[in-house]
Design brief:
The protein is of the alpha+beta class. The chain is built from 14 helices and seven strands.
Length: 313
């Protein structure tokens, strides 16, 4: 039963990306021996400190440890890093992604289940290395600073735990194994609590890596709008529409920014293609509110310098 979820043969060598190193040991990764049932705070402190955050498990305890459950839930573990200015990025559920992060010098928080499906025994640990020759993973785990585990056993326990693996990212970083959808979801969650500058860095990284993703341009534009950089925001919203002309959110934000720049007629032109009857709440209400304010301004405020308004289109 335990071997059913993994293939025969060496796992690490078969999962390494071309050009990846054959072995990694991130020995400088900090170690926090866990107290009973508190592997969550210990593991999370490990990856946060490795990301240059000054914190200890005791400070994380109120954020992630649930006494009634004698452990930490995944949602709290993913949310807590945002309070320290870090993005929580959940990896895809394959060994390749973990190895890619380790090869990039980034420790990976993993959730294992050492029990059975009907009697689970959950445990958070941090992968800090691998060795293809011996087909072993290296972890910071529990009260063991250096735990070496066969890749096969690692995969069994990780598979039983739902294959959760997570890294924490500084604003401006993207994971080595990141894909656009997962990263942009992480950046959107981060944006809710981040400062405008932190948010701009997070979405700027997305724009640089995935310029064909409209959501990245919208996110960076919104961060610039929050910072009062209206011209930069307008240019990013315009870039989002060049990528995806159907993006109602980008068009609405673009119109709002043009209005704030003193370009009500240009804003009106942006809103014209939007058919609000087909929109769902709350986007529909947002567009209707923008349209009301733009129409009111169009009758009372002259257009700003036409060249300035044209530059943002």
């Amino acid at each position: 039963m335990l071997s059913a979820c993994v293939a025969r043969g060496p796992l690490i060598a078969d999962s390494l990306a071309p050009g990846a190193r054959a072995s990694i040991d991130l020995d400088a990764t900090p170690f926090f021996p866990q107290e009973k049932h508190r592997c969550g705070p210990a593991a999370l402190a490990t990856v946060l400190v490795a990301s240059s955050v000054s914190v200890n498990p005791e400070a994380l305890d109120p954020l992630v440890y649930i006494p009634a459950r004698r452990g930490s839930l995944q949602v709290e573990m993913q949310a807590a890093p945002r309070a320290f200015g870090r993005l929580s990025y959940v990896l895809s559920g394959d060994l390749d992604s973990i190895l890619a992060e380790l090869d990039a010098g980034r420790p990976v928080l993993v959730l294992h289940n050492y029990g059975l499906p009907f009697l689970p025994r959950w445990h958070y640990a941090v992968a800090i290395g691998y060795d293809a020759a011996s087909d072993q993973m290296t972890l910071r785990s529990g009260v063991t600073r250096v735990q070496r585990m066969s890749a096969r056993h690692f995969m069994v326990w990780w598979h039983n735990g739902g294959r959760l693996a997570m890294v924490v990212l500084r604003p401006g970083e993207t994971a080595a194994s990141a894909n656009a959808k997962l990263y942009l979801e992480a950046a959107a969650d981060f944006e809710r609590v981040a400062s405008p500058e932190e948010s701009r860095l997070a979405f700027d990284a997305a724009v640089q890596r995935w310029p064909s993703e409209a959501v990245g341009w919208v996110g960076r534009g919104t961060a610039e709008y929050r910072s009062g950089e209206l011209t930069a925001a307008a240019k990013d919203y315009a870039a989002a529409l060049r990528v995806d002309v159907t993006s109602v959110g980008a068009r609405n934000n673009f119109a709002q920014t043009l209005l704030d720049l003193g370009c009500p007629r240009s804003a009106h032109e942006q809103l014209q293609p939007i058919e609000t009857d087909n929109l769902e709440s709350p986007l529909r209400e947002m567009v209707l509110d923008t349209r009301r304010r733009v129409e009111a301004a169009s009758h009372t405020s002259p257009e700003a310098d036409p060249k300035s308004c044209a530059l943002t289109n």
